[in-house]
Each structure stands twice: as C-alpha cells, then as structure tokens.
Amino acid sequence: MSTKRPLNFLCVTTYHKGADFIKSCKAEGNNVYLLTKKKLEHEVWPWEAIDDVFYVENWNQNDVTKGIAYKFRTIKFDRFVALDDFDVEKVALLREHFRMPGMGRTTSHYFRDKLAMRMKAQEEGVNVPKFTALFNDVDINAYADNVSPPWFLKPRLEASATGIKKINNREELWQIVNALQDERDNYLIEKFAPGDVYHVDSLTLDGKVIFSRVSKYLDTPFEVAHGGGVFRSATCKIGTKIEKALTKMNAEVMTAFGMQFGASHTEFIESKDTGELFFLETSSRVGGANLAEMVELASGINLWGEWARIESATLRHEVYTLPKVKNQYAGIVVSLSKFENPDMSSFNDPEIAWRMHKKWHIGMIVVSESADRVMELLDSYTKRIATDFHASIPAPDKSL
C-alpha cells in the first residue's frame, strides 16, 4: 500500500553533484533535505527542489549524528542517500544509528573499500587480479615471490585513479611500504595487467540489474591522471561478445555484493595477454566525469533521476517502471584547456549533443546510430584538441 504523506529524503554529499537526483526526488512528491559542506553553499544547487539545507564545516561523524538527531525531532526522515563515493560509509553509519532502511556498513564496504571488494569478489567466484593486503610482512614477501611485477599500489578508500602508483620490483615495493609507515594498512597491491578498461553503469531493483550500459575507456583514468592525457570513453556495440560478457559479469558482482536497489558504476579490465576479464572496482553511485550524460544520451536513461525514482518507489512499496531504453551510441572527450573559455565553434558536427561549459576545460559528447561514427568523431576531435587546446597538470597524490 502506498504511503500517503510525502517522504522525507536527506541527501548527503560533500561534493557538488546529484542535481538530477534531487530534482527527480522532488518530482516524485517527496520533501528533499540537503546536507553538504558550508564551502559549497554558493554552488548552483537546484534550490527549487530543496526544502531545507544543512551545512557542516568539517565532517565529524558524532557531531553530524547529533545534528541529525536534533532535526529528527521535528522532521521524520524516511531515507538517507549518499550522492558521492566519499559519503557512502558516513551515510551507512547514519543509517545504522537511526535504523534507516538501505545499505549498512558491511555492504557499503564492498562499494567503497578496494580490499573488501577484491576479497568478497574472490570469495564469490568473480575473477579479480592477484592482490594482497599490506598487513603482514610474510604475506607481502610471499606475494612478491609468486606474482611477477609490475604491481599497482592502491589506496583502499580513494576514488577513481587517485593515489595509485605503479611498482616495478620488490625493492621499490618495500621502499613504498616502509614510506607508508602506519598508513600501510590502508593500501593493497595487485597485479598490473595491461589491457582495455571498461565501465558498466547500471540500475538495480529488488536485487536484480534492470538496466546497464557497457562502455570502454579509450584512455584509462590512470593514464589520464598520471600522463596528462585526454579523457575519452564510448559506449560499446550492443550484442557483441565483450558487451554480453561484461553485462553478465556486472550482474554477478551486484549479486555477490548484495546490491538491492540503486545506481552503480563498475569497472573491469580485459587482459591484453589472455583476453580474460577481471573485476576492478565498483561504487554504489552514478559514475563521475560526465559519464552519466554520455549514458543518458546513448540510452535515454538518466541514471540520477531513475535512481531517485527507484528509491522513492521502493520505500512506498510501489511498482517502478523503467522508461523505454534507446540503443544509440555515444562517446565523450574531455581535456584541460590552455584557454580559460575555449572557443568550440569549430566543432560543429550535428552529432554533438553536449558541450562542457567549465573554465579551463574543453569537452563534448557525440551521439550516433553508428558506433563507428562515434569513434571516428572522437579520434578526430582528440587530435584537434591535443594540437590546439590541450593543457595538463601533475596528478595529486591524495584526494583534496
């Protein structure tokens, strides 16, 4: 039976994102409350869809819990939603404290902690690169004895390619481990397997993936972050062997990790040497870097908006219906620009469906009925951007 009163959603994000989730949530007849950082108060939030906003200077879990408890006296919150990777665990703790439905701390770790992801995936029979935690010296040496370099050092709780370092030999490995000192338990190492990296962006309802779109990074996030390249991704041809295999593997990961409902962004690698597919990492949120816009332009599915509708329908015990899916192809190209406001007028093909409007950046999304046409345009644009617009800065060691 449907709940008659408006539901009260508390959307938590310490980054400026999730506008489409907030607008869709409000359009479903709910009250939307935003909890974010004080420094983000002047960002362009969809204020028309926000009933009230709560600010924190610096996140202190106990202070935030007490603040929400105070607000709870007059606002009966029905759902807490984390809109960004870095808020997933914080919100899981809030759910457990207030006994709120949704993902708890244990499940949230599978979508945040790279070590937890690999251990759970391996336990459930999902293929992962050979890895080890950095807890025990004997285990580290045994790993180095049995798994040939190069290896990747990865922080367990960072997002995207932040903090990842390539290690070429045992001596370098121990130099890095020793330099980490008391922080080494927050890292893992895994086998570096050169290959193509893919991402699957999906929606899950009642424990089943109801929508997914497979795309390929044409330049991996690691390459872009550490080599100063141009970021590119494109949706894969539907019905191909790799598209079918990754669709199936993504569903297996969601089942293994206990995803019940919501959005996810999951990455896989196809080994250059063997063709094997390996699970890399996942997250219980919509993909960043404007990949959501690319997926929407290819499929007609707004991941943020549909995630909000799924949350609302699940809580109300109502039937959720996915909008009709289009099967077009899209690709994105984004780069830092040496111009503050680059003139993109020379890019005038009719396939351009989206342009980035951000200072010191240049970017476009193209859409076509033909995957080959998308690739043709991306290749052409990448060369032109590299020659006439591109700028790069060194990758930060840690997330700011």
The strand count comes to 16
The CATH H-level homologous superfamily of the largest domain: ATP-grasp fold, B domain
CATH level 1 class label of the largest domain: Alpha Beta
The fold-level CATH name of the largest domain is D-amino Acid Aminotransferase, Chain A, domain 1
Rg computed from alpha carbons, rounded to a whole number of angstroms: 21 Å
How many helices? 12
Number of domains: 3
Q: What's the average pLDDT? A: 92
So what's the overall shape? globular
Low-confidence stretches: 395-400
Helix percent band: 25-40%
Describe what you observe in this structure.
The chain is an alpha+beta fold and 400 residues long. The chain folds into 3 domains: 8-102, Rossmann fold, CATH 3.40.50.20; 130-191, Dna Ligase, domain 1, CATH 3.30.1490.20; 195-389, ATP-grasp fold, B domain (D-amino Acid Aminotransferase, Chain A, domain 1). It has 12 helices and 16 strands. The chain has helices at 19-27, 61-72, 88-98, 105-110, 114-123, 137-146, 170-180, 221-227, 241-257, 291-299, 303-316, 371-388, and strands spanning 8-12, 31-37, 52-56, 79-82, 131-133, 151-155, 165-167, 187-191, 195-205, 208-219, 231-235, 262-271, 277-283, 329-336, 352-355, 361-368. The strands form 3 sheets. It has an 8-stranded antiparallel beta sheet with strand order 13-12-9-10-11-14-16-15, with helices on both faces. Strand 12 and strand 13 (277-283) form a beta hairpin. Helix 1 crosses helix 11. The radius of gyration is 21 Å and the shape is globular. The termini are far apart. InterPro entries: ATP-dep_AA_Ligase (IPR052032), ATP-grasp (IPR011761), ATP_grasp_subdomain_1 (IPR013815).
